Amino acid sequence: xxxxxSAVPHDLPDADELxxxxxxxxxxxxxxxxxxxxxxxxxxxxxxxxxxxxxxxVDLYYARQADRIAAGNQVAALSKASEPHAAIAYVQxxxxxxxxxxxxxxxxxxxxxxxxxxxWARSVTGVGPVLAAGxxxxxxxxxxxxVGAWWRFxxxxxxxxxxxxxxxxWNASLKLIYWKLGVSFQKTCNRPTDVYxxxxxxxxxYEQARNERGELADQAAAALKKxxxxxxxxxxxxxxxxxxxxxxxxxxxxxxxxxxxADYHAVAFEKHYGTAPPLPYxxxxxxxxxxxxxxxxxxxxGGGAGSPAAVR
Length: 312
Known about the structure:
This protein has 312 residues and is an all-alpha fold. The chain folds into three domains: 1-36, no CATH class; 39-112; 141-306, no CATH class. Helix content is 56%, strand content 1%. The protein has helices spanning 39-46, 51-80, 86-112, 117-122, 129-138, 147-153, 172-187, 196-212, 217-226, 233-239, 245-273, 281-284, 297-300, and strands at 25-26, 29-30. Helix 2 (51-80) runs antiparallel to helix 5, helix 3 packs across helix 5 (129-138) and helix 5 (129-138) packs antiparallel against helix 7 (172-187). The relative contact order is 0.08.
């Protein structure tokens, strides 16, 4: 195998030595032949991924995706200005290939993992291999008796506040996955097979009506006190006792995601324990009714009046 040598072992090689040859030397590193996998080999290797590996690959996928988008924006700007951009375009293409390779591995992982929750998640319109893998890698049913634990773990519990000087009270990677789920449901709301996008649309109409009736004025006043920017669309809405459109949209997306997670948790819980899960604390103790028993798990357990009710 060809290797790049240097007078000092840890020195970087000269720029003209950094090239990828047929034996896999890239960036001055000799890549073992067994790691130079074809797409089919990647899929096979992915079937035995651990949760830690899956978490890493999901994080890497989104990081490289952000870099590739940034590179694409740079290419577009340089192209518009008639400036050279071949090098950046090459980097963009390279990152795109890495994205596709990671997606291929996560596709195989979610189709073959033993719990069946990867396949269940993939059956939902708007959930692809990367999002499904992220859920599998982060959400452990043995550590969540109710879906409320998963809401809180991913930053969907509005009562949890990240105070200055304290450790972040949620998982940042999982919160990003939840956010991307919401955006995906928003984008797929018009597809015939969609479920959670329709919930997003329904909830948005419901929140908009409440906003227009002034029922969210107290929340608008609280948000106004925390607002740092002076001249914003949000401030104008808050001064009128209303939440801005972006805030209403985000509430609707979060609602759809929480319903999806409730369904995911119910199915995972029954698969693992053979019985229905307990109701989330806000519903069982505080009387908050905002979940639909889409899986039928609560009904089969005889949940009765305490079981989740349909979205209003």
